[in-house]
Amino acid sequence: MKTTPAHNERVRKMKFYSVFPHYVTKVEKKGRTKEELFTVIEWLTGFNEEDLNKLIDEKVTFETFFERATLNPNAHLIKGVVCGYRVEEIDNPLTKKARYLDKLIDELARGKKLESILRKEK
What we know:
single chain; mainly alpha; Helicase, Ruva Protein, domain 3; 7 helices; 2 strands; globular; DUF2200 domain-containing protein; UCP033199; SP1917_dom_sf
């Protein structure tokens, strides 16, 4: 499924600091912890809690967030549908990374075990 240029632009300009509280609410409402959320984000991006807090304070966009991230080499193992898009078919690199993050957070909120969320090559 192809994303539109307008969709990709919206993702690029989104502010990480404005979305992050929604991630926290989503996982905590389902009985997961903020620490588990930090674990998932760190696995995908390499950012620890301190790094994330700095990025939030800087009010970075998703574009800047993912430019500074070191994407996990196993991120390509993230598959499935999120926000109406099959992540493995998204052609825009930034949008794909943002949807990887969304997918991991969805899995955490749905109660999937951390060992399964933090993918490893088989």
